[in-house]
Amino acid sequence: MRKKCFFEKYLFLFYFLAILTFISGCQSIQKEKSLGPEDKEFLSVVRYIISPEERKTFLNLQPSERKNFIEEFWRRRDPVPETEVNEFKEEYFLRIEQANRLFREGGRPGWLTDRGRIWVTLGPPDHRETYPRGQSFYGYPVEIWHYGFYQIYFVDRFWNGDYQLDPANARQIAEITQTQVRWNQPGGRMFEGSRTIDFEVRMERKESGEALIVVSLPYNQIWFKAVQNKLETVIEVKAEIEDAGGQKIWEGSRTAEISLTPAELKEKFDRSYELELQAEIRGKSPFTLKVEVENKTEKKKSEKKLKFEF
């Protein structure tokens, strides 16, 4: 009897939550239908990058408040707000334009196709293989896109030019999204012009007047290029030290070539790659250390400053 009562309560709660979810969904649909043309266009064009919370907030705003929301939406994603150009926004619309030009299929705009969606959200692949007659005599036309050690398959099962994402790739897409989620958010590095290289710097004091500069880059922040069965990139580190008066007292650089197999990268994914530079320090404290890291593969730089006593 007690089990039956518990089951009935649980069932009631389940249906209650389901009804609430259904009502909430209907309200959202109704609110979206009532939007003006400009607001509908905004929600459509940002479908790949707007968060559920942002979407809900936008729909609940008064019409007069939505213009400010749209401006703030793009402003939050501007990687260099002090400049007039919003690199994130420009890159996003550039990718939409590229997708529309590259993937004309099925009567839909290119950016709304499966290949277009991946192109807009992840960018151009490191390497793209095309098999318009299939990989075998009885096979369908196939495209394989390489992102680092991930491979994404698109299959044209109806031989009409409409390449659809292979369902088996759902896991790969999820993994890419997980590892790159911050790159596709405000200030993220997924977009050209907004990518930054995340790294840490520490100083280790050695003998009198000498110090070891250690630059630590998480492997999951390093962008690799697929070269045959390897993942490769070149990292360059430049550093300089200024004394309390702003006088440069030391500078140095180091370049590292990194080459891994996909299996090796998976093993090291949660670790960091370290580069060391030996510095000679003379002058008056406090000192300022400037470190610039460049990934030659994606031609992106990032800089950090560190003040220290010696």
Give an overview of the whole structure.
With 310 residues, the protein is an alpha+beta fold. Strands 7, 8, 9, 11 and 12 form a five-stranded antiparallel beta sheet that branches. The chain is flat, with a radius of gyration of 25 Å. It has helices at residues 2-33, 37-45, 52-60, 66-76, 87-102, 114-122, 170-180, 262-268; strands spanning 127-131, 142-147, 150-155, 164-165, 200-205, 210-218, 225-227, 230-242, 248-260, 272-280, 287-295, 300-308. Among the domains are: 87-184, no CATH class; 200-308, Immunoglobulin-like (Sandwich), CATH 2.60.40.
Proportion of residues in extended strands: 25-35%
Q: Please provide the count of β strands.
A: 12
CATH superfamily of the domain at 200-308: Immunoglobulins
Q: Please give the largest β-sheet.
A: 5 strands, antiparallel
N- to C-terminal separation?
76 Å
Quick synopsis:
With 310 residues, the chain is an alpha+beta fold.
Q: Secondary-structure blueprint of this entry?
A:
Elements: H1 2-33, H2 37-45, H3 52-60, H4 66-76, H5 87-102, H6 114-122, E1 127-131, E2 142-147, E3 150-155, E4 164-165, H7 170-180, E5 200-205, E6 210-218, E7 225-227, E8 230-242, E9 248-260, H8 262-268, E10 272-280, E11 287-295, E12 300-308
Antiparallel strand pairs: 1-2, 2-3, 3-4, 5-6, 6-10, 7-8, 8-9, 8-11, 11-12
